[in-house]
Amino acid sequence: MHFIKLFEEFTTEGDVFISVCGQRVKVKIPSTSSEMQRGYMFSDGPKEGEGMLFVFQKEEVLSFWMKDVKVPLDILFFDTDKNLVSYKKMTPGGENFYDSEKPAKYALELPSGWIEKYLEENNCKLNFNI
Fold first, then answer.
1. What is the pLDDT of residues 13-69, one digit of tens each?
2. How many domains, the chain?
């Protein structure tokens, strides 16, 4: 059995569900640096209701790119208190970097269009206890 320990937040096995801006999302959590670097490279990306949650040990300005990613993605950045600090719409391929506007501890990649459907900037939090 494979267990994922999310930096003392919770321990789980199998599928992980979180809530973001009040929406339930099934997430993958990369557990090694190579998984974090790979992200959605060479894949078809997340399906509706799915995403990938990147967890960093400390808050810092985070930077992502879309090299070898086939589909557009939305990314949301959250601070240690799980409050939204910024978000971006990312286009596939290329060497552009997408940085958080402020230091962040969490980054959540979601299917393109998620921001338009669900984002509530003034009330968007990340919640692991659902």
1. 457 999 999 999 999 999 888 888 888 788 888 899 999 999 999 999 999 989 888
2. 1
Burial of 74 (0-12, 13-18, 19+ CB in 10 A): buried
21 is in which domain, residue-wise? 3-127
- Is 23 exposed, middle or buried, given 0-12, 13-18 or 19+ CB atoms closer than 10 A? middle
Which tokens hold the place of 107? 């980054």
Instruction: State the pLDDT confidence band at 4, using cuts at 50, 70 and 90.
Output: very low
What's the token pair of residue 76? 């949301």
**Listed residue (67, 1, 58, 3) closest to 29, CA to CA:** 3
CATH number of residue 19's parent domain: 2.60.120.1140
